[in-house]
Amino acid sequence: MTQTVVNSDIDVLIDALRSLGGGAFLSETSKNLKQAINSVVQTQKSANVTLKLIIKPDQHESGQIVVFGSNSVNLPKEPIKTRFYVSNEMLPSRNAPDQLVFDF
């Protein structure tokens, strides 16, 4: 599968993201994206991945900038659940109320 990049500015952006933290930023973002996709598939609820770039002038070198990157993931939460039968005393039970029990 070949992709065609329409604008060379996209390549510059990807190179900048790849450079942050020696690749750590892009790696972390990729892991967060995979987590989000997995959670959405399992829960059928939406998730989001947020990328944040902060660009500041370099205080020590004129004409240079410093770029800080962070990302976060917000995953849907599936509640922990199990099923119970209701006993004749109206209490949760793992066994059906009228289930026959065989002693071996």
Radius of gyration over all CA atoms, rounded: 26 Å
Large-scale geometry: elongated
Tally of DSSP β-strands: 4
Strand order within the widest sheet?
Answer: 1-2
Low confidence ranges? none
Strand content range:
15-25%
Supply the number of helical segments: 2
N-to-C span: 62 Å
State the order of secondary-structure elements, H for helix, E for strand. Answer: HHEEEE
Mean pLDDT reading: 88
The largest sheet, given as strand count, sense and whether it forms a barrel, is: 2 strands, antiparallel
Percent of residues in helices comes to: 25-40%
SS-based structural class?
alpha+beta
Question: Would you give an account of this structure?
Answer:
The structure is a single chain. By secondary structure, the chain is of the alpha+beta class. The protein has a domain at 8-79. The protein has 2 helices and 4 strands, in the order H-H-E-E-E-E. A hairpin with a 7-residue loop joins strand 1 and strand 2 (65-74). The longest helix has 20 residues, at 24-43.
